[in-house]
């Protein structure tokens, strides 16, 4: 007995729906003799009678009715699968898994994702922050498709595209002793409570580029996950924070805050979008990167 194949179901469905061999043959691009031969071959291959003759008509047997029901369920799924695979091949459909190594970038990402979803109605977006092997590892292992990071780690097979520049600033509340000054030295933070995102000090620029080279540490460090709570704490004098200037400006209408340059020259940063080189042909992925570069803060 030969395995059931898709073209078997297509013939069964066409004969049933068209009502005659002639019409079914036209639909299937087969002559009537060729279709009659195909029908006999199907029954021989499957080892079961699918049709019986009633006069000049072909009527489905019980097995034939079951196969027709199966064809009506499966053939649309085959058609949908082929359509979807074509869309995948053309980069028109998929789920874009985005990994975040930039805590304050969520607002910027929202400004990118919303219009992007309108541009690509058949593409979904998922955002992840916690990775089993870190952001770069998640990108290499296909856990994510795009990594949003201020600290690219260049490895073979990975491409990092800069999408916008920004400056890190110290943020203080209106009653803080540093309110109103233009720039700080490391010594200014020696007796401060520094509020940060839950990231190791080795990945915080305020430590690696400013405090550690001067051999100075803040009096205390508090880790808070959400930007809103962090800025509420700063506004109420519970500590100071280091954030992108554009993000502080966005919250200016909600909190009375003051931005202070870190050092004489400040700390300049860039946000990069990393992706795998093998994904260069995915149009919806490359369009996200190109589009993201137009959304500046």
TrEMBL record:
Pfam families: HTH_1, LysR_substrate. Keywords: Activator, Amino-acid biosynthesis, Cytoplasm, DNA-binding, Methionine biosynthesis, Repressor, Transcription, Transcription regulation. InterPro entries: LysR_HTH_N, LysR_subst-bd, MetR_PBP2, WH-like_DNA-bd_sf, WH_DNA-bd_sf. Residues 1-61 form the HTH lysR-type domain. It is found in: Cytoplasm. Gene3D superfamilies: Periplasmic binding protein-like II (3.40.190.10), Winged helix-like DNA-binding domain superfamily/Winged helix DNA-binding domain (1.10.10.10). It comes from the Bacteria. Belongs to the LysR transcriptional regulatory family. This is HTH-type transcriptional regulator MetR. It comes from Neokomagataea anthophila.
């Amino acid at each position: 007995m030969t395995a059931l194949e898709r073209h078997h179901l297509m013939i069964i469905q066409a004969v049933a729906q068209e009502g005659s061999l002639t019409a079914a043959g036209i639909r299937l691009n087969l002559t009537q003799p060729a279709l009659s031969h195909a029908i006999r071959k199907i029954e021989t291959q499957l080892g079961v009678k699918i049709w019986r003759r009633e006069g000049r008509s072909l009527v489905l047997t019980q097995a034939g009715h079951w196969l027709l029901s199966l064809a009506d369920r499966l053939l649309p799924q085959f058609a949908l699968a082929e359509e979807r695979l074509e869309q995948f091949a053309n980069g028109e459909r998929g789920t874009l898994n985005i990994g975040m190594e930039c805590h304050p970038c969520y607002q910027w990402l929202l400004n990118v994702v919303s219009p992007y979803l309108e541009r690509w109605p058949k593409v979904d977006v998922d955002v992840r922050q916690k990775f089993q092997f870190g952001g770069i590892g998640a990108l290499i292992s296909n856990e994510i498709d795009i990594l949003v990071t201020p600290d690219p780690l260049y490895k073979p097979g990975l491409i990092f595209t800069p999408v916008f520049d920004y400056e890190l600033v110290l943020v203080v509340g209106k009653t803080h002793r540093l309110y109103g000054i233009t720039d700080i030295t490391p010594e200014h933070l020696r007796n401060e409570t520094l509020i940060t995102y839950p990231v190791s000090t080795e990945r915080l620029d305020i430590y690696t580029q400013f405090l550690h080279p001067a051999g100075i540490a803040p009096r205390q460090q508090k880790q808070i996950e959400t930007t809103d709570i962090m800025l509420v704490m700063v506004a109420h004098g519970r500590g100071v924070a280091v954030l992108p200037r554009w993000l502080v400006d966005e919250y200016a209408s909600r909190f009375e805050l003051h931005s202070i340059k870190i050092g004489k020259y400040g700390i300049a940063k860039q946000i990069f979008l990393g992706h795998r080189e093998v994904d260069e042909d995915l149009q919806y992925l490359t369009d996200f990167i190109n589009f993201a570069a137009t959304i500046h803060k």
